[in-house]
UniProtKB/TrEMBL annotation:
The keyword Nucleotide-binding does not apply. Residues 367-618 form the Heparinase II/III-like C-terminal domain. This is Chondroitin lyase. The keyword Signal applies. GO terms for molecular function: lyase activity. It comes from Alginatibacterium sediminis.
Length: 714
């Protein structure tokens, strides 16, 4: 006879308090109202339990919806007391129990092991987690015979598949492994069998090292909390992490899970939120969607949990304002009550932050600079100088992305897949993810000799990481970061130094990019920027191609059309302006003899139209050692509806490398009415207050710290 248990994640007092929120206009009341309407709408259709189907197809999505509503109906049964919810969840669970073992395993189409319901075991674990949570809410409503059918026909086969057939996946230190241990542990509690919880917490070997939840959170996240696969997979991993942490906190309080590993759970929630753009969308670092944001279900759980367990951070109230939803749980109720008690909640302005990588924080970092313009708009600059990111890593160390005025300006391509679009290989990763999206040239950085960093070899890339040089993010007028990536191309050293400069002359901060490369041999350096919008003007003549040809044969170049090109004038800086949304952007670069600018568009050698058609421009230079110095200026306003356009031309006319020594680099940014000198450190390993000097034109410039500016005129 199986033991029945209380709901795993809700106690009686919480249920009573949540019930009082029904019909209220609080965040919790609104969240409950949404869940009630959504669940009743789904319940109005006949129950259907399909068989196999392609990834992203009808059957896949139906199984996904079914486990979602098993969980929702179970919770609503407790909160509303209405038996129709319990009966609905019960019928779904019983239906699955009757058919689960009659289904064969899916045919394996990629490296992921398959399940009986889904094309990969990961989805089966998500099914197990949510159906177990729903079951725990209605187990006392069920008869003993019904409980027996569900456990023996559905849960036990899933448990044994997870820890026996796919034991290697269960102990895998990976976001898939997090889902596995959380699902098995929660199911074990739901059916009253403690052994599954022990395996989930401590791993199959029971050593807290080779597997299990404690090993997962100790090894997956850096001391800063950053997750090496990037924000897209971080927000997916955060869901089982937070759900199982709350379960452990309630049912294994002796583990003190919220203080484990120096409060790594709280740190990783903050780190994830600190990566997001001001509009809440996550930058597409590594394999990632361009649209995933902080309204994701896992992030909603994480924000509520962090507010409850790690102090009442007002920034989390601002996040909740964007989400307009809380976790339907005691933690979410705390956040909702706090939000309701405030007269006004401001949108969150996260500070600039450098998030170290690796279990010990010594494998590079990700840098996030944020600066607020005088009108309140927030610019965010991101640079990757950390780890590769395992199987989802892109080959873009020192790559950047830039966001301001509500849009991504220097953009990421993201992953090469159409998630859950069944005709596109079932929504799985496409070949073009490897042949283009992960290649260096698809990002905002320099590609050497039309090749890819680390020869597109994952093992080589995993063994390397970027090296932080400096990070200065605590000034409202001048911020900067610099990093190094040596030998990512054989014999080539790279250093990229970025600065955001807030001056009263400009409505938005200037972005300065100084990219240094050095080698004993000559190379072809392609400085690439991915933009979106309409080219407005250039100060150089270019030739459009009457017949399109690809830019190369490999490393992503085979997917780029050479649309137009220009040999630029070494006597003056090149300017290129485009219109994106309501804003103008002008890129200004210092030229050298022989430089070429190439306009490209993705989509070549793509017979199945798997790639999006997107634009970039490349500054190509042949050299041994060189410095690319560039400025991106944001300016003006455009509104087609009212036929308004202001300041379509920027103020910056030139950017010049005046001097570059082992100590420092001296850059001039100038326009008709101003000149600004920017001084950047080239010294590695010096204190933050180190005094630097550099000589130019018989004048010695001195400053303390890694970077400084000096107004010459204007």
């Amino acid at each position: 006879m199986h033991q029945t248990a209380e709901a795993i994640l809700l106690n009686r007092n919480e249920v009573e308090l949540l019930a009082k929120e029904l019909g209220q206009d609080s965040l919790m009341g609104l969240s409950l109202n949404t869940m009630v309407n959504d669940t009743l709408n789904y319940m109005s259709s006949p129950i259907e339990i399909p068989g196999h189907g392609e990834a992203g197809g009808y059957e896949h999505n139906k199984h996904k919806l079914n486990y979602q509503y098993i969980n929702q109906a179970g919770r609503l049964f407790l909160i509303t007391g209405e038996e129709r919810y319990a009966e609905y969840a019960a019928q779904l669970l019983l239906g699955y129990a009757d058919v689960y073992l009659t289904l064969d395993y899916h045919i394996q189409r990629n490296t992921n092991p398959t399940g009986r319901l889904f094309h990969q075991i990961l989805n089966e674990h998500v099914f197990l987690l949510y159906s177990s949570l729903g079951y725990s809410c209605i187990s006392r409503y069920l008869s003993e015979e019904q409980r027996e059918r569900i456990i023996e026909g559905l849960f036990r086969p899933l448990l044994e598949m997870s820890v026996v057939k796919y034991g290697h996946d269960f102990d895998r230190i990976h976001n898939h492994g997090l889902w596995a241990v959380a699902a098995v542990g929660i199911c074990g509690l739901a059916i009253g069998e403690d052994k599954w919880m022990e395996l989930s917490v401590h791993g199959l070997a029971g050593d807290d090292e080779t597997g299990g939840f404690l090993a997962q959170i100790a090894k997956l996240f850096a001391p800063s909390g950053y997750y090496m696969e990037g924000p897209y997979y971080h927000r997916y991993a955060i869901r089982p992490l937070c759900l199982f942490a709350e379960v452990i906190g309630r049912h294994r309080p002796e583990l003190d899970i919220f203080n484990y590993k120096d409060q790594v759970i709280g740190k990783t929630i903050n780190a994830m939120l600190a990566t997001a753009y001001p509009n809440g969308v996550f930058p597409a670092l590594n394999d990632a969607s361009l649209s995933m944001d902080i309204c994701d279900a896992g992030v909603i759980v994480a924000v509520s949990l962090a507010y409850s367990h790690y102090g009442q951070n007002p920034l989390l109230l601002g996040v909740a304002k964007i989400q307009q939803k809380v976790w339907i749980h005691g933690c979410g109720l705390e956040l909702s009550n706090a939000y309701q008690s405030e007269d006004k909640v401001e949108l969150p302005l996260w500070p600039s932050v450098e998030l170290n990588e690796g279990p010990n924080g010594d494998r590079g970092a990700q840098g996030f600079l944020r600066m607020q313009a005088k009108g309140g708009d927030i610019s965010q600059l991101v640079m990757n100088y950390g780890q590769h990111g395992m199987g989802h890593g892109h080959f873009d160390t020192l790559g950047v992305s830039f966001f301001n005025r509500g849009q991504e300006v220097l953009k990421e391509y993201g992953f090469g897949r159409w998630v859950n679009v069944e005709p596109k290989f079932g929504g799985r990763y496409l070949d073009e993810n490897k042949s283009y999206a992960r290649q260096t040239i698809a990002h905002n950085l320099v590609s050497v000799d039309q090749g890819c960093q680390n020869q597109f070899d994952v093992a080589t890339a995993d063994a390397k990481h970027g090296t932080p040089h400096y990070f200065v993010g605590d000034d409202s007028k001048l911020q900067g970061m610099s990093a190094i990536a040596d030998e990512f191309y054989p014999g080539v050293k790279q250093q990229r130094s970025l600065a955001l400069i807030n001056d009263e002359l400009f409505d938005s901060p200037l972005l300065l990019d100084v990219y240094q490369l050095s080698s004993e041999e000559q190379h072809c350096y392609d400085y690439a920027l991915q933009y979106q919008g309409q080219i407005i003007r250039t100060n150089f003549e270019y030739q459009s191609q009457s017949q399109l040809k690809t830019l190369g044969d490999d490393a992503g170049y085979q997917h780029l059309w050479n649309v137009a090109s220009a040999e630029v004038d070494k006597e003056r800086c090149s300017e290129l302006s485009w219109l994106q949304g309501n804003s103008y952007y002008t890129w200004i670069c210092s030229n050298q003899a022989g430089d070429e600018i190439i306009f490209t568009r993705s989509g070549a050698n793509d017979p199945q139209f798997n790639l999006r058609s997107e634009t970039s421009f490349i500054l190509r230079r042949e050299a041994n050692s060189t410095v690319f110095a560039n400025v991106l200026e944001t300016h003006g306003y455009f509104n087609e509806a009212i036929e308004a356009s202001t300041d379509a031309r920027g103020q910056v006319k030139s950017v010049t490398v005046l001097a570059n020594t082992e100590q420092a680099c001296l850059i001039s940014i100038a326009g008709d009415a101003f000149e600004l000198l920017v001084m950047l450190s080239n010294l590695h390993g010096v204190p933050n207050d180190h005094q630097h000097t550099i000589e130019y034109n018989n004048t010695i410039y001195s400053w303390n710290g890694h970077l400084a500016t000096q107004k010459i005129r204007g």
